[in-house]
Amino acid sequence: MNAMLRRGWFDRLLMLGLCLLALAWMLPLLWVLGLSFKPNELLQIRTDLVFAPPYTLANYLDIVQSSQVFRWLGNSAWVALCQTVGVLVLSSLAGYGFARTEFPGRKLIFAIVMFGLAVPPQSTFIPLHRLFSDWNLQNTFAGLILPGLAAPFGVYLMTQYFKAIPMDLEEAAMLDNASRLKTFLTVILPLTLPAQATLGIFTFLGCWNDYLWPLVIATNPDMYTLTRGLASTQTNFAQSEGLGFLMSQAVFAGLPVLIIYFFFQKYLVTAVAGTGR
Protein backbone atom coordinates (compact mmCIF):
# COMPACT_ATOMS: atom_id res chain seq x y z
CA MET A 1 0.00 0.00 0.00
CA ASN A 2 2.81 2.38 0.92
CA ALA A 3 4.62 1.48 -2.30
CA MET A 4 1.52 2.33 -4.34
CA LEU A 5 1.11 5.60 -2.45
CA ARG A 6 4.73 6.57 -3.11
CA ARG A 7 4.30 5.62 -6.76
CA GLY A 8 1.24 7.86 -6.98
CA TRP A 9 3.11 10.83 -5.53
CA PHE A 10 6.02 10.17 -7.85
CA ASP A 11 3.70 10.15 -10.87
CA ARG A 12 2.12 13.43 -9.79
CA LEU A 13 5.49 15.10 -9.28
CA LEU A 14 6.70 13.79 -12.61
CA MET A 15 3.60 15.16 -14.36
CA LEU A 16 4.05 18.51 -12.61
CA GLY A 17 7.67 18.67 -13.75
CA LEU A 18 6.69 17.86 -17.33
CA CYS A 19 3.99 20.54 -17.28
CA LEU A 20 6.49 23.11 -16.04
CA LEU A 21 8.97 22.14 -18.75
CA ALA A 22 6.22 22.35 -21.39
CA LEU A 23 5.25 25.79 -20.11
CA ALA A 24 8.87 26.95 -20.23
CA TRP A 25 9.12 25.64 -23.81
CA MET A 26 5.91 27.44 -24.83
CA LEU A 27 6.72 30.81 -23.26
CA PRO A 28 8.78 32.06 -26.26
CA LEU A 29 5.95 31.04 -28.59
CA LEU A 30 3.39 32.86 -26.46
CA TRP A 31 5.70 35.88 -26.37
CA VAL A 32 5.93 35.94 -30.18
CA LEU A 33 2.15 35.57 -30.48
CA GLY A 34 1.56 38.40 -28.02
CA LEU A 35 4.00 40.75 -29.74
CA SER A 36 2.33 40.12 -33.10
CA PHE A 37 -0.85 41.81 -31.81
CA LYS A 38 0.88 44.86 -30.31
CA PRO A 39 1.18 48.25 -32.07
CA ASN A 40 4.67 48.88 -33.42
CA GLU A 41 4.65 52.40 -31.94
CA LEU A 42 4.23 50.96 -28.44
CA LEU A 43 6.91 48.32 -29.00
CA GLN A 44 9.42 51.03 -29.83
CA ILE A 45 9.02 52.24 -26.24
CA ARG A 46 8.67 49.00 -24.27
CA THR A 47 8.12 45.29 -24.90
CA ASP A 48 7.28 44.03 -21.42
CA LEU A 49 3.52 44.62 -21.67
CA VAL A 50 2.92 41.74 -24.04
CA PHE A 51 -0.24 40.41 -22.39
CA ALA A 52 -1.83 43.77 -21.60
CA PRO A 53 -3.87 46.07 -23.89
CA PRO A 54 -3.82 47.67 -26.38
CA TYR A 55 -3.97 45.08 -29.16
CA THR A 56 -4.23 45.51 -32.91
CA LEU A 57 -4.65 43.48 -36.10
CA ALA A 58 -2.72 46.01 -38.15
CA ASN A 59 0.39 43.81 -38.34
CA TYR A 60 -1.56 40.96 -39.92
CA LEU A 61 -3.43 43.33 -42.23
CA ASP A 62 -0.08 44.65 -43.46
CA ILE A 63 0.91 41.09 -44.42
CA VAL A 64 -2.37 40.35 -46.22
CA GLN A 65 -2.25 43.66 -48.10
CA SER A 66 1.12 42.75 -49.61
CA SER A 67 0.56 42.25 -53.33
CA GLN A 68 2.54 38.98 -53.57
CA VAL A 69 2.12 37.33 -50.19
CA PHE A 70 -0.53 34.89 -51.41
CA ARG A 71 1.60 34.03 -54.43
CA TRP A 72 4.47 33.25 -52.06
CA LEU A 73 2.08 31.22 -49.94
CA GLY A 74 1.04 29.22 -53.00
CA ASN A 75 4.66 28.69 -54.03
CA SER A 76 5.53 27.35 -50.58
CA ALA A 77 2.50 25.07 -50.52
CA TRP A 78 3.26 23.66 -53.99
CA VAL A 79 6.97 23.14 -53.30
CA ALA A 80 6.36 21.57 -49.90
CA LEU A 81 3.59 19.31 -51.21
CA CYS A 82 5.59 18.09 -54.22
CA GLN A 83 8.70 17.54 -52.13
CA THR A 84 6.74 15.65 -49.47
CA VAL A 85 5.10 13.35 -52.02
CA GLY A 86 8.45 12.74 -53.74
CA VAL A 87 10.22 11.92 -50.50
CA LEU A 88 7.45 9.53 -49.43
CA VAL A 89 7.56 7.65 -52.73
CA LEU A 90 11.34 7.41 -52.99
CA SER A 91 11.91 6.65 -49.30
CA SER A 92 9.23 3.94 -49.30
CA LEU A 93 10.71 2.22 -52.34
CA ALA A 94 14.26 2.50 -51.06
CA GLY A 95 13.29 1.42 -47.54
CA TYR A 96 11.46 -1.64 -48.84
CA GLY A 97 14.42 -2.54 -51.02
CA PHE A 98 16.89 -2.33 -48.14
CA ALA A 99 14.61 -4.13 -45.68
CA ARG A 100 13.15 -6.91 -47.81
CA THR A 101 15.46 -7.65 -50.75
CA GLU A 102 18.97 -8.96 -51.14
CA PHE A 103 21.26 -7.49 -53.79
CA PRO A 104 25.05 -7.07 -54.15
CA GLY A 105 26.43 -4.19 -52.10
CA ARG A 106 23.21 -3.65 -50.13
CA LYS A 107 24.95 -2.96 -46.82
CA LEU A 108 27.54 -0.71 -48.43
CA ILE A 109 24.92 1.34 -50.29
CA PHE A 110 22.83 1.65 -47.14
CA ALA A 111 25.90 2.87 -45.23
CA ILE A 112 26.55 5.48 -47.93
CA VAL A 113 22.95 6.66 -47.69
CA MET A 114 23.24 6.91 -43.90
CA PHE A 115 26.45 8.89 -44.31
CA GLY A 116 24.27 11.57 -45.90
CA LEU A 117 22.84 12.26 -42.44
CA ALA A 118 26.25 13.56 -41.36
CA VAL A 119 26.67 15.95 -44.30
CA PRO A 120 25.44 19.51 -43.52
CA PRO A 121 23.11 20.76 -46.27
CA GLN A 122 24.98 24.08 -46.33
CA SER A 123 28.12 22.34 -47.52
CA THR A 124 26.41 21.31 -50.77
CA PHE A 125 24.98 24.71 -51.68
CA ILE A 126 27.80 25.76 -54.01
CA PRO A 127 27.97 22.56 -56.12
CA LEU A 128 24.16 22.34 -56.20
CA HIS A 129 23.83 25.95 -57.29
CA ARG A 130 26.40 25.51 -60.06
CA LEU A 131 24.72 22.29 -61.20
CA PHE A 132 21.23 23.79 -61.27
CA SER A 133 22.49 26.94 -62.97
CA ASP A 134 24.08 24.83 -65.71
CA TRP A 135 20.76 23.04 -66.14
CA ASN A 136 18.87 26.39 -66.31
CA LEU A 137 16.77 25.43 -63.28
CA GLN A 138 17.27 28.65 -61.34
CA ASN A 139 13.98 30.40 -60.55
CA THR A 140 11.99 27.25 -61.32
CA PHE A 141 9.89 24.93 -59.19
CA ALA A 142 12.14 22.03 -60.19
CA GLY A 143 15.11 23.90 -58.76
CA LEU A 144 13.25 24.42 -55.48
CA ILE A 145 11.96 20.84 -55.20
CA LEU A 146 14.61 18.44 -56.50
CA PRO A 147 17.38 18.91 -53.88
CA GLY A 148 14.98 18.03 -51.08
CA LEU A 149 14.13 14.64 -52.60
CA ALA A 150 17.40 13.23 -51.27
CA ALA A 151 16.23 12.26 -47.78
CA PRO A 152 18.56 9.86 -45.90
CA PHE A 153 16.43 10.15 -42.77
CA GLY A 154 13.36 9.07 -44.72
CA VAL A 155 15.18 6.02 -46.11
CA TYR A 156 16.33 5.09 -42.60
CA LEU A 157 12.88 5.55 -41.07
CA MET A 158 11.10 3.49 -43.71
CA THR A 159 13.78 0.77 -43.67
CA GLN A 160 13.41 0.31 -39.93
CA TYR A 161 9.62 0.32 -40.16
CA PHE A 162 9.55 -2.26 -42.95
CA LYS A 163 11.88 -4.49 -40.91
CA ALA A 164 9.38 -4.37 -38.02
CA ILE A 165 6.57 -5.78 -40.20
CA PRO A 166 6.33 -9.60 -39.87
CA MET A 167 7.54 -11.54 -42.88
CA ASP A 168 4.55 -13.89 -42.59
CA LEU A 169 2.23 -11.31 -44.16
CA GLU A 170 4.41 -10.96 -47.23
CA GLU A 171 4.95 -14.71 -47.56
CA ALA A 172 1.22 -15.37 -47.33
CA ALA A 173 0.55 -12.88 -50.12
CA MET A 174 3.21 -14.44 -52.33
CA LEU A 175 1.73 -17.90 -51.72
CA ASP A 176 -1.46 -16.52 -53.27
CA ASN A 177 0.57 -15.74 -56.43
CA ALA A 178 0.76 -12.01 -55.71
CA SER A 179 3.73 -10.29 -57.33
CA ARG A 180 6.26 -8.45 -55.18
CA LEU A 181 4.97 -5.10 -56.46
CA LYS A 182 1.35 -6.01 -55.68
CA THR A 183 2.38 -7.30 -52.26
CA PHE A 184 4.22 -4.07 -51.58
CA LEU A 185 1.34 -1.83 -52.69
CA THR A 186 -1.62 -3.72 -51.22
CA VAL A 187 -0.24 -5.52 -48.15
CA ILE A 188 2.94 -3.91 -46.83
CA LEU A 189 2.58 -0.23 -47.73
CA PRO A 190 -0.82 0.32 -46.00
CA LEU A 191 0.74 -0.92 -42.74
CA THR A 192 3.30 1.89 -42.84
CA LEU A 193 0.75 4.71 -42.63
CA PRO A 194 2.05 5.97 -39.24
CA ALA A 195 5.61 6.12 -40.56
CA GLN A 196 4.42 7.75 -43.77
CA ALA A 197 2.53 10.41 -41.82
CA THR A 198 5.52 11.07 -39.57
CA LEU A 199 7.93 11.37 -42.47
CA GLY A 200 5.45 13.55 -44.33
CA ILE A 201 5.15 15.93 -41.37
CA PHE A 202 8.91 16.24 -40.96
CA THR A 203 9.47 16.71 -44.69
CA PHE A 204 6.69 19.27 -45.08
CA LEU A 205 7.89 21.14 -42.01
CA GLY A 206 11.50 21.24 -43.19
CA CYS A 207 10.56 22.36 -46.69
CA TRP A 208 8.06 24.97 -45.50
CA ASN A 209 10.57 26.55 -43.11
CA ASP A 210 13.53 26.32 -45.48
CA TYR A 211 15.07 29.70 -46.15
CA LEU A 212 18.67 29.20 -47.28
CA TRP A 213 18.06 27.16 -50.43
CA PRO A 214 15.23 29.40 -51.75
CA LEU A 215 17.50 32.35 -50.99
CA VAL A 216 20.15 30.82 -53.25
CA ILE A 217 18.05 29.41 -56.09
CA ALA A 218 15.15 31.93 -56.26
CA THR A 219 16.10 35.48 -57.24
CA ASN A 220 12.85 36.36 -59.03
CA PRO A 221 10.17 37.68 -56.61
CA ASP A 222 7.53 35.67 -58.46
CA MET A 223 9.35 32.46 -57.43
CA TYR A 224 9.89 33.35 -53.78
CA THR A 225 8.62 30.97 -51.14
CA LEU A 226 6.82 32.42 -48.14
CA THR A 227 9.91 32.51 -45.90
CA ARG A 228 12.02 34.08 -48.64
CA GLY A 229 9.32 36.59 -49.57
CA LEU A 230 8.53 37.70 -46.03
CA ALA A 231 12.21 38.16 -45.31
CA SER A 232 12.54 40.36 -48.40
CA THR A 233 9.90 42.75 -47.01
CA GLN A 234 11.85 43.39 -43.82
CA THR A 235 13.99 46.48 -43.49
CA ASN A 236 17.35 46.67 -41.79
CA PHE A 237 15.61 48.14 -38.75
CA ALA A 238 12.71 45.68 -38.58
CA GLN A 239 13.56 44.63 -35.04
CA SER A 240 13.32 48.22 -33.70
CA GLU A 241 10.80 49.88 -36.01
CA GLY A 242 8.47 46.97 -36.84
CA LEU A 243 8.83 44.31 -34.15
CA GLY A 244 5.12 43.54 -34.12
CA PHE A 245 5.11 43.17 -37.91
CA LEU A 246 8.13 40.87 -37.67
CA MET A 247 6.42 38.65 -35.10
CA SER A 248 3.20 38.53 -37.12
CA GLN A 249 5.23 37.25 -40.07
CA ALA A 250 6.59 34.43 -37.92
CA VAL A 251 3.08 33.47 -36.78
CA PHE A 252 1.67 33.72 -40.31
CA ALA A 253 4.42 31.49 -41.74
CA GLY A 254 4.13 28.88 -38.99
CA LEU A 255 0.35 28.59 -38.80
CA PRO A 256 -0.16 26.18 -41.77
CA VAL A 257 2.43 23.76 -40.39
CA LEU A 258 0.82 23.92 -36.95
CA ILE A 259 -2.55 23.03 -38.43
CA ILE A 260 -1.11 20.07 -40.33
CA TYR A 261 0.72 18.82 -37.26
CA PHE A 262 -2.48 19.08 -35.20
CA PHE A 263 -4.27 16.63 -37.49
CA PHE A 264 -1.40 14.14 -37.84
CA GLN A 265 0.24 14.22 -34.42
CA LYS A 266 -1.27 10.89 -33.35
CA TYR A 267 0.85 9.09 -35.96
CA LEU A 268 4.15 10.32 -34.54
CA VAL A 269 4.19 8.16 -31.42
CA THR A 270 2.93 5.13 -33.36
CA ALA A 271 5.69 5.45 -35.95
CA VAL A 272 8.48 5.90 -33.39
CA ALA A 273 7.21 2.89 -31.44
CA GLY A 274 7.09 0.87 -34.65
CA THR A 275 10.73 1.57 -35.56
CA GLY A 276 11.91 0.36 -32.16
CA ARG A 277 10.32 -3.07 -32.32
- The topology string of helices and strands comes to HHHHHHHHHHHHHHHH
Count of DSSP E strands?
0
Question: What would the CATH topology of the domain at 67-233 be?
Answer: MetI-like fold
Q: How large is the count of helical segments?
A: 16
The major sheet is characterized as: none
Q: Structural class per helix/strand content?
A: mainly alpha
CATH superfamily of the domain at 67-233: MetI-like
Summarize the structure.
This protein is mainly alpha-helical and 277 residues long. It is built from 16 helices and no strands.
How would you describe what is shown here?
The complex is composed of two ATP-binding proteins (UgpC), two transmembrane proteins (UgpA and UgpE) and a solute-binding protein (UgpB). This is sn-glycerol-3-phosphate transport system permease protein UgpE. It is found in: Cell inner membrane; Cell membrane. With 277 residues, the chain is mainly alpha-helical. It has a domain at 67-233: MetI-like (MetI-like fold, Orthogonal Bundle), CATH 1.10.3720. Helix content is 72%, strand content 0%. It contains 16 helices and no strands. It is globular. The chain starts with a helix and ends with a helix.
